[in-house]
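Help wanted!
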Amino acid sequence: MTITLIFLALLMGIVVTWLVKQSINSQPWAEVGVIDNDNPNGPVFIGSKKVFLGGLLAVLTSLFMLFFSAYRIRMEYPDWVPLDDPQILWVNSVLLILASIFYQQAKNAAQRNKEGGIRVGLILAGMFTFCFLYGQLWAWQQIHDQGLFIYSNPANAFFYVLTGLHALHIIGGLWVWARSTAKVWLGAQADDVKSSVDLCTLYWHFLLVLWLIMFYLLLST
Amino acid sequence: MAHAAIADKGQELSHPHSWITKYVWSQDHKVIGIQYIIVATLVGIIALFMSGMMRLQLGFPGEFTFLEPNEYYQFVTMHGMIMIVFMLTAFFLGGFGNLLIPLMCGARDMVFPYMNMLSFWVYLLSVLVLIAGFFVPGGTTGAGWTLYPPQAITGGTPGGDWGILVMCISLALFVVAFTMGGLNYLTTTLQARTRGLTLMRLPLTVWGIVMATILGLLAFPALFVSVIMMSLDNMLGTSFFMPAISEMGVTSDHTGGSPILFQHLFWFFGHPEVYIVALPMFGIASDLISTHARKNIFGYRMMVWAIVAIGGLSFVVWAHHMYVSGMNPYFGFLFATTTLIIAVPTALKVYNWVLTLWEGDIHLTVPMLFAIGFVFTFIHGGITGLFLGNVVVDVPLSDTYFVVGHFHMVMGVSPFLVVFGGIYHWYPKFTGRMLNNTLGKAHFWITFLGTYAIYLPMHYIGILGVPRRYYANGVTDFMPDSVASINASITVAALIVGSAQLIFIYNLIVSLMKPKDAPSNPWNATSLEWRTPETPPRHGNWSDELPTVYRWAYAYSVPGAEKDFIPQDVPPSAATGNK
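Answered by r_m:
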């Protein structure tokens, strides 16, 4: 559970630091009058969707950190037989890195109002993401063909569950990706998709970091 | 659909055009809040009925034959899980959270109303799946609300096959529903506050609910992880938690999983869950006490920091539930220490409530009675919690009725008193009708005194060593004969308290049948929800313009002011009546 506690300590640190900035000098009982955005104690608005995504990423981090903690605890037991991770996972990692890079490129293009750049970035990011998913499926198939089923060993079970859950989150992201891509394809302006491209980029980077940690964990056994 | 802009730029509010979209597939936070409250109450009544059945068995063993041992354990499990997760969490966060957050923030609705609606429907689905457990082969799980493996899955435990699976699915759905709702509360509070409403001007109710939401968002994934892995152990034969086990002479396929791992994950959710219920009740109690004592809340800033500190500390105490599972003594010391440290901010809150009451102009209204009653029961529950936080005391008392008494005082009676106080307080705003005062007071006194008659003796029999979870105590040397008569008296008190809730239901029904009679601000309160142009507030809450906030939510008995309260949206010049 140490992994989870470290994550929580970091998160609480962020929350407390932010709250200190919001309130350390505030004496609400003594302050009468309107406090606007211009005021140092005033409310900070950064956009609902961004806050929502930030909250969602915190939830997902907690979810995966708990799985990682469980993985570390469970692997200490004598019945754990380390999995010989398929080599395709290295290729998949590169594919996901490329997807993330091209999403970043789409985001940069959106900031410069270049619809062409957004289109290319989105299509390539989507393409590499689909390839990653296919690669993960291929990895499953390889392990399955070796007779390593989910019930064969806890290491296998964790492999299927963790990669499956990660893939599900990617599929969820692809739904938003599909909407943005369709919009751009139908001639939408950069402003119309800027927000969703921005948020999706953050989501893709998050899933990439998550995958890299997960891949390290899988390899470390 | 017609649309109107809400406080949060770029978001839109959809107006219903039919009965279905107004009351069923509603996106209005108030309707969704009431939907949550209705479902939580109905499922809570089922859990209350089960506790009555269990008490009859314990109080008069052998005289009633409607509960077999298996059913008793199934009732224990369902009663606990329903009350903690599906009733109290849903009531405080889904119910009060939905009703109050947008109004107290001066917003027109939650920032994502459609997702808010989905949150309720997924919650309802989780409740229906849970109830479906009664009808699957073998019935609901009887593993206890902690669902510990391996007993949760093995054949000797009722519901070890289908029942536990249905429970896991139901909990996973609940987590999904909670996440959708929780992200909405967080975003709405951070992004949709009206002009002038800084975080430090928010009522403590909002602080309590939002901090509980943050705890839930981070802790519920642990429950999700547990139930996913438990389901896989059950369905696909994995060995995350299930050890190598031989059952009825047959060796299972499980290879040696870790039940302790489950306990870590479960209590990582389970202990913050206590505060997911407690923090909203702290917030609501603070607002009730301040309003009905006509006095600003003592130490507002300290109260906010106490809520944050409790939230943070609640994540590093989980293993005090596992002292009896066996633990490295150094870890035992660590968790005992953090458990006791959490008493500091909690005690601060109690002192502040008492100091708010001190020399206040106390109006003994029904909401105030319930709030003061809560302070009493919470102090009792909290102090016995200190006993149990110590390893050396916890180990002998852990499996006795002492824990049942402590737990019900702090997590059963206290939150329910606040729930009732909150309902009596806000009911006029959301229905336009006043509840009968005399009936309310009768409801309070029977409930408050009755619960003491139930739970104080439980502490006593716990110290005598009477074990909990037993279907029947039988004849034992260490138990004096008085235990049987104490158990009978507890049962009688429990039945009286349970029946007294009919007074409340009668009060609700009668009030709903009479014409609207509630003024827009019957308690002369200061927070924004009382300042809507209409009572009950219409869809969108406010008129064309959102309110502007000029002060905090506790401007009571301000020297020089015309009245003993100044609502948050009253400009400074108008507050003194231009004297």
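OP: Thanks! One thing I noticed: Chain A touches chain B through 51 residues (CB under 8 Å).
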